Amino acid sequence: MTSTLITNIGTLVTNDPSHPGLLGLVEDAAVVLDGSVVTWTGPAADAPAADQRFDAAGRALLPGFVDSHAHLVFAGDRTAEFNARMSGQAYTAGGIRTTVAATRAATDAELDANVGRFVAEALRQGTTTVECKSGYGLTVADEARALRIAGAHTPETTYLGAHVVAPEFADDPAGYVDLVTGEMLDACAPHARWVDVFCERGAFDGDQARAVLTAGMERGLIPRVHANQLTHGPGVQLAVELGAASADHCTHLTDADVAALADSTTVATLLPGAEFSTRAPYPDARRLLDAGATVALSTDCNPGSSFTSSMAFCIAVAVREMGMTPDEAVHAATAGGARALRRTDVGRIAPGARADLLLLDAPSPVHLAYRPGVPLTAAVWRAGVREV
Ligand code: NIG
Ligand code: FE
Fold it and tell me: Which atom of ligand 1 is the closest one to the Cα of 274?
């Protein structure tokens, strides 16, 4: 195995609590990678020798972004729907069915190419871990193939057969929940790590969501929930009650919802791309952080409500619109995402962690918010391999 010394790092974000501040910063730092893992971090002056050397030229190095919420297995786009929304039309869950029709009509090769394209697009912007949901197939065969395809690109696969009621079951939602918790789950569970449900008016109510999540848990899947996106609802409380890894969106929260999250191990995953692209009010990250909840930031990349793969964009919006400091937003996009995926090998730079690294074309991680819209990726390593 070849070791690499990255030296002359102006600011190193470790997210390691043994270093100062929320981001565990080390100034004038160096990092050593060996194979796929980090083996050493510390002041450049103390760095050990390695087989090869990379000069970071005083720029900032941080853990690769962990995007813990994305919907990448789909075909088509929804430009017309976006255009209509920007002329005043409201977002509804119903648009999902447009993408379902296009996805069902696509070949395996087309869907695989689409996922590959989005994973590569995200990687170029510093995302080294991405979660990927099914949910645009809504038949036994189409959901299973979505997860098979997703699994070729990431281990973080999520069964979202309960995205909306499939059009064939429009008059029989209970029958669709039976399918999702029965035959469809049988076909999907072998290809998924997580189970998710869109708990929302127009999608699935609290009882239906509970049935979907508990059936998945009985098959060894870990729950995460689309909760409280468009309206107040039971999603967050259900997520906490079932010990879900994450409650995602968290846009409309009561004080009791905030307290429940703060008191739990369930991460509040905020998805500002969705509010941006649906012209909706942003979630209040400050309220969650002040209450003591763990917050993650993710893209929600999907063709309907949030067609961005840019974690930097989400950081900038979270800082400007959601009450987060730049450090909190960077932490949420790295360590927070790792927590939401229950991963200890990513989202931090420390000996033993996977060598997932983002070198910024900037001296400080604050520039991710300070220079919105500017491509700042200078280099990316994933599992020790230089990818960008
Ligand atoms: O997370 N909320 C449900 N699912 C997606 C939207 C999917 C779509 O509109 O196609 C979301 O925002
Ligand atoms: Fe989503």
Answer: 12
3-16: per-residue pLDDT in tens? 999 999 999 999 99
State yes or no: 71 annotated in a binding site: yes
| Of 93 and 303, more confident | 303
Beta carbons within 8 Å of 327's beta carbon, 6+ residues apart: 21, 22, 23, 365, 366
In terms of residue numbers, what domain contains 243?
A: 66-340
- Angle CA(129)–CA(135)–CA(140) in degrees, nearest 5? 120
Q: How far apart are CA 353 and CA 363, in angstroms?
A: 23
In Å, how far are 198, 302, 378 from 135, measured between CA atoms?
10, 11, 34
- Within a 10 A sphere around the Cβ of 385, how many other Cβ atoms? 12
- Bridge partners for 204 per DSSP: 199
Identify the burial level of 139 via C-beta atoms within 10 angstroms of its C-beta, where 0-12 means exposed, 13-18 middle and 19 or more buried.
middle
Are 258 and 182 members of one domain?
A: yes
Contact 208 CB / ligand 1 (< 6 Å): no
149 in helix, strand or coil? helix
Residue with the nearest Cα to atom 9 of ligand 1?
304
Using CA positions, which residue lies closest to atom 3 of ligand 1?
198
Measured CA to CA, the distance from residue 322 to residue 253 in angstroms comes to: 14
- pTM reported for the whole predicted model: 0.98
| Residue with tokens 């703060």, as numbered in its chain | 262
Residues 134 and 283 in one domain: yes
Count up the domains in the chain and report the number. Answer: 2
pLDDT of residue 93: 84
Instruction: Please report the atom of ligand 1 found closest to the CA of residue 249.
Output: 1
Taking the centre of ligand 1 as the mean of its atom positions, its distance from the CA of residue 302, in whole angstroms, is 7
Q: Is 185 in the same domain as 279?
A: yes
